[in-house]
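Troubleshooting log. The previous run stalled partway through. Resubmitting the same three chains, unchanged.
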Amino acid sequence: MAIKHSHPGIASSFRGRVALSAIAAAAAVGAGAFMCVPAFAGQQMIETGSSLLYPLFNLWIPPYVKAHAGLEITPQSTGSGTGISQAIDGTAQIGGSDAYLSPALAKQHGTIMNIPLAISSQMVNYNLPGLGKTHLNLNGPVLASIFQGKIVAWNDEAIAKLNPGVKLPNEKIVTIHRTDGSGDTFIFTQYLTASAPEWKSLGYGTTISWPSAPNAIGAVGNPGVVDAMKNAPYSIGYVGISFKAVTQSNALGEAALENQAGKFVLSTAESVMAAADALSGKTPADESLSLIFAPGDKSYPIVNYEYAIVDAKQPDAAMGREIKAFLSWTIMPEHGSAAGFLDQVSFVALPPSVEKLSQTQIDKIGQD
Amino acid sequence: MTSAALKASADAFAVRRPRLAKLLRRAPRFRDLLAVLGGAIPLGVVGVVAFLTIYAWPAVMLNGWGFVGGSEWNLGSTYADPIVTNGIPVLPGAHYAILFLIGGTLLSTAIAMIVAVPVGVGAAIFLAEAVPSWARLWLSLFVELLAAIPSVVFGLWGYAVLIPLVGKHIAPAMSLWLGWIPFLGGSPGNGYGLLAASLVLSLMIVPLITVTLRDAIVSQPDSLRETAAALGATRFETVWLVIMPGLRTVLIGACVLAIGRALGETMAVLMVSGNALGGLPSNIFGPVSTMASFIVSQLDSALTDPTGFAVRSLAEIALALCLMSIAVNTLARLLLSYANGGRP
Amino acid sequence: MSATTNRPLVHDLALARRRHLISQLGWIVCATTLAMLGVAICWILGMILIKGVSALSLKIFTAPTQGNGGGLLNAIEGTAVLAVGTLILAVPLGVAAGVYVAEFPVGPWAKTIRFFCDTLVGVPSIVLGYAGYVLLVQTLGWKFSAAAACVTLAMICLPYICRSSELAFAAISIDLREAAYALGAGERQVILFVLLPAATPGVLTGILLALSVSVGETAPLLYTAGWSNYLWNGRLFDSPIAYLTYAIWTFINEPSASANALAYAAALLVTSFVLVVSIASRLLIRPR
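Second attempt completed without errors. Output:
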């Protein structure tokens, strides 16, 4: 940074110095005005986490905050991994996650609970120009091979066998996976683990070591996946159901997935509810249950609970009360779980038995 | 202690360490206040490096030399129970090896330099010699504005403009016409990748080379130019054959400075590189990750490791990057100060 | 040369013509490279200007972000708060370091400060941001906060202020110091009341450079400041704060048009601020 001082500029003359001081003073006054904005005296709650749950929180928060003065809630779409870790270390009050806590984490932090708020599902979308309105049939083994790089072209015979009569292009498949800690990765890899034996070694989790497939793109967040898919023709990826409208407006196709009964189903309210009804009765008290690959002819295979990860032990009693009130509101069928909210993100409300279990967990907040 | 005992021990100290005792005994001067305040800089650097080392030490111990010997970023089974290896809890199946990151960093920096050095040198020569001095200030300002633009804005332009351009036009054309050169052929990809990242990086480091070289050329004595002109050299020959050879050290120093900047670039690379997770690209159009962009893209997912080992491995990457950048920048400063016969 | 050798004139003419051609080619190549840089910067600034201006509206300056839409008031305010906080931390420390190195260069401490100053410039901002995250946000428990962000940004800006102050003070001729000391002034008076006013342009340049760096940084702030959809509540610890570069980084990846518009508007604001500061600092000191 060699600065040559042959002709010092503005600051050398009196007028220059006056001008500079005026600007500095104006800046200081401006900064001071900003800082004198009165500090918000009420409660500030932070929700962070799943990008699949984020659109629903964006729908819930404005009417709730309007009805409850003295409360500010900031939602953030950062990924389920961040939601879990920030709820655990107290940076956020509510962590949104599509994945329940791992046994190791639950043991390490005994007071952290995962509370289902709604039931959601996941689509497998693709960008195949020229396919029109046809829904491709795909199943676990084929998807596992695609994401492992064993099937490289769209017109591979394994895909053609599932889709007789569909003209598949002779193009390389571009796989899109999530690079952030993602509940969507968790449920997608759980589906692959449950339905495809060759995926067992890769396992499931909010983040896995993705095998290096050629042309594999990493994206951040559901919006990132949709964005990458719309920019990359012949791509395939997994997207949360709350982004259904966005995928449709970007002309991305949705695959019909093969369930345990061997039927190919699309994600509709009926197919999701069929899967939930088949498995929700098995929900344990801590509500860590996978709804993936449910039995039944009509069941959609990738269905999951949307969890709020909350610490039962809240450092501030008033904040604990606010969290309890907000979460109770969200699962009430006449308030947060009304069709008006859930339909906009294609979620399904909790069955009454699960709603009771959730309320029991919510009541534990702030009691320690 | 009584005051007599204190005085006795102070006298004993003064006998053993006379200069230090004198230093501590004299009245504080203003320069001491400045020295203490200025100590924030050494304290900060030492503190950051020390803290990162301590924090990453378990990861350093467990990952060992294999950390730079393979290409895999595997957190292990996050939903299985942790196992304890050498006293450190890790997830089963966890394996961290960052050769692909080191390769990605070096590749993107190298390609960026291949593009940036000729452009930077040419622009510097033109600015120093061919532009009249009244215009030189404003044209140089133009180039320096390129240096002032924040990294994330470069990333925004890269994402909005460069990716479609590379994906739809530049990459297919290069693959078609230059495909016979190894590494430049093959599938043109979709824009996100090494080529786009290197192009953005080169735009960010060109001003460093241009400004340093331009200042050096301008400050060369006119007697050199006059002598060359008297011997019949053209203006260009003067610059190219007479002035530039003398500035070899300055050029190398500026290039090393540019390399140092390129090593640490994060946001721009993150937005255009495609975020490869486990291998080097097979050609220039494939997705790549650099050490800096990897830390940002993987921190959220590293937090899902309940043992915290993944976060410590990321800290190990940060430490490696820090030491690499410090080494490169120190080399650059040494070269530049050697060329200038003192501090630049 | 041709006058003193025995070669035929025609040969020398051909040589001269070739040299002339090569020189012309050389200038054309150099001009092209400068033009390439000019095109690049016009392209970038042009895109930011066009897309940013079309996204500007009164709402940007009056409403905070709400989900994928709204305005940028919280981000603008947050960036201002962080910039002021960073300068409050960095300017005294940086100027003190620069003055010490310039005025008392003999001795190990000055050499130490100078060496670490050069080293600190080379540390990537993501490394400082990550260290800030692990040390300040996690270990010290500050959580995402304005304090963690300001301390990290101050570390990033310190070397620029130190370097500029040192150069500014070193450029003052020794006569001024001798005269002041001869009149009986002490160290403090000479430095604060005689030398500092004379060095103001250089020091201000460093401060402006630090200001533009702190407004344009993203990666370190991602892990120290967090993000907030609300205006700053005055708390230095435990409370995240918004900033403009987050809006650029996050909202451009959302598939919603309103979010993308916010990203471009934020990019326009940040870029214009940085450019204005760059030009202003250039006007403070006019080199030859």
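Takeaways: Chain B has a mean pLDDT of 88. DSSP finds 14 helices and four strands in chain B.
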